[in-house]
Design goal:
Thrombin, subunit H; single chain; alpha+beta; two-stranded antiparallel sheet; 3 domains; 463 residues; six-stranded antiparallel β-barrel
């Protein structure tokens, strides 16, 4: 889990570096990042209605002689107390969306990076590669411990970006007094651009990798540690360019207390299962973003919302499958252009006695009358993955009918419930089956074959 911190320092606005105020920057995984300022950036007469500062700069103390520049980005004032004695006697409290420890960015356009390295939750277990080699002797009198940093594993995801799995020792302790040795290693996903890119563009990739990892382990995954390299704080050391790493705290708050480690057997698949196909799978994910991003998002929404009601989880799964079919299959009785030729005639054929909301409802249905029904969509998806999905259900027809009738009931809230509508435990089972069907579709899009996906089913059923 991300560690809390508290840094004291001086803070100012980029265009007013002469007006500095003391304050404390705090981070807590539950509360996020806040700046408690002993002062105000606005004069009393200007404070009312003044916009929140987009960027606040600071310099914090980390020790007796160590200090760091800090940039706070997307700052929102949540509390302020003005004093008649002036700005320095006032107080302000800001919520901070992004904190960059180790650099000053004076403008939004300056926030650019060449590389970001992210340690995600469960990444150590998913990769499951380490550089430790421990060799105890047979007689127990000798233990040889060796450590060699593992080689990076690289993958190109396009012309402008390269993604790699990197390894770093974060704690090395050797004590002759306590007679102990400790070497702790951490795994990172590193995103490197061919040239400096905007922070927002980088984070689009960070979030996509987060979503893909979530599918691979079928658990919520969070970026716990983020480091970046930027031209903005480049130094010369011994005649060579050096980029001190920038610590980044990005929109982190309300992270649930999840198990610190996830047992490898509980993961759908690990890096070991795809080590020879890692680049191909990652490319597939990114190449299909434009096509499948709404589906990725709906899947992630359900995964990251543990308190979502069962009804909403069911509707989420149905909508995701409907969206998936619309984007990957034909899904139309007629093309839009051809349908336009008959849509007007269908609307004109509505009898004059039909008025008000009823007429609006019919017109709405006619508007999208060229699209195939949900029943047809589910049938086509199940047929495409019948080798895998028939392991989960007894009858395709009854499953499809139940899913459609249940969707219609919860969307339209029919007064009379049909016998085929799922409620209670049956709704839970149906939702699980729909979720697994969606996961089967996404795994197939990544590049897994039917036999491979079939081998994942026992774990997918447990999730």
């Amino acid at each position: 889990m991300i560690e809390r911190f508290e840094y004291s320092g001086m803070w100012w606005l980029p265009d007013k570096d002469k007006e500095q105020f003391p304050g404390t920057l705090r981070f807590d995984p539950n509360e996020g990042t806040v700046l408690d300022l002993k002062g105000s950036f606005q004069k009393i007469e200007d404070a009312y209605g003044a916009p929140d500062p987009e960027i606040i700069l600071g310099h914090v103390s980390l020790g007796k002689s160590v200090g760091k520049n800090v940039t706070l980005y997307k700052c929102r004032r949540i509390k302020s107390n003005s004093s008649s004695l002036g700005q320095s006697a006032s107080t302000s409290l800001f919520n901070i969306y992004d904190a960059f420890i180790g650099v000053h960015f004076k403008e939004k356009e300056d926030i650019r990076f060449r590389k970001l390295s992210i340690h995600y939750s469960y990444l150590d277990e998913w990769v499951n590669i380490h550089g430790l080699n421990i060799q105890p002797s047979l007689d127990g009198k000798e233990i040889v411990i060796k450590y060699s940093k593992p080689e990076s594993i690289c993958a190109n995801i396009g012309e402008n970006y390269k993604v790699s799995i990197d390894f770093e020792t974060i704690d090395r302790t050797f004590s002759t007094i306590k007679k102990g040795i400790s070497v702790k290693e951490r795994t990172y996903i590193t995103i490197e651009a061919s040239e400096e890119k905007s922070y927002d563009e980088f984070f689009g990739i960070v979030h996509q990798i987060q979503k893909s990892l979530s599918l691979w382990v079928m658990e919520p995954v969070y970026p716990l540690t983020i480091k970046g390299l930027t031209e903005s704080n480049k130094e010369k050391r011994k005649g060579e360019d050096y980029y001190p790493p920038v610590e980044i705290y990005h929109g982190l708050r309300d992270i649930p207390k999840v198990p610190e480690r996830l047992p490898v057997p509980d993961m759908v698949f690990t890096f070991k299962n795809i080590s020879g196909k890692f680049e191909g799978f990652l490319k597939n994910w990114f190449e299909k973003i434009d096509l499948l991003e709404p589906v990725y998002d709906m899947y992630s929404e359900s995964l990251y919302s543990p308190f979502m009601s069962l009804e909403n989880k069911f509707l989420n799964a149905i909508h995701a499958l409907e969206s998936y079919h619309r984007r990957t299959y034909c899904g139309e009785y007629l093309g839009v252009a051809d349908y336009k030729k008959i849509r007007g005639a269908l609307v004109a054929a509505i009898p004059d006695v039909v008025k008000g909301p009823f007429k609006d409802s019919l017109k709405s249905r006619i508007e999208f009358g060229y699209e195939v029904s949900l029943r047809s969509r589910l049938k086509e998806i199940i047929e495409a993955h019948r080798v895998v999905f028939t392991e989960l259900i007894e009858g395709k027809k009854s499953f499809t009918n139940t899913a459609v009738d249940t969707r219609n009931y919860y969307v339209h809230r029919l007064k009379e419930r049909k016998e085929t509508v799922a409620v209670g435990n049956n709704l839970f089972l149906l939702t699980q089956q729909l979720r697994i069907l969606l996961e089967i579709c996404l795994l197939a899009e990544l590049g897994f074959g039917p036999s491979e996906i079939k081998s994942f089913l026992p774990i997918m059923r447990k999730k």
